[in-house]
């Protein structure tokens, strides 16, 4: 395979950079997924009732949906204590915790370049 073809494949192929970054972006896409991840980063374990209190305008239905998706993608773990009344807590998995420095770097990038983008938050 020619060198240019190898480079192109490393970026654009099915196992290339674009595919991997796109996969991560799809894992965190959704209006409430980032707020959920950041809250679980700030507090290691939380119950759904606390997440609902801490994230204004988030509905129980959407919270449950996003938590299931984050769990399916391996970013969040659900711990069921098997009690009555039900006691369930959520926390970041090792994979979720390892994603946080990337998200914090993105936040810093935004802060550093906010002046370059019209309408960006200060």
UniProtKB/TrEMBL annotation:
InterPro entries for the chain: ArsR-like_HTH, HTH_ArsR_DNA-bd_dom, HTH_HxlR, WH-like_DNA-bd_sf, WH_DNA-bd_sf
Protein's name in the database: Transcriptional regulator
One Pfam short name: HxlR
Domain HTH hxlR-type, residue spans: 11-118
Alphabetized GO MF terms: DNA binding; DNA-binding transcription factor activity
Presence of keyword Transcription: yes
Gene3D superfamilies in the record: Winged helix-like DNA-binding domain superfamily/Winged helix DNA-binding domain (1.10.10.10)
Keyword terms, alphabetized: DNA-binding, Transcription, Transcription regulation
Keyword presence, DNA-binding: yes
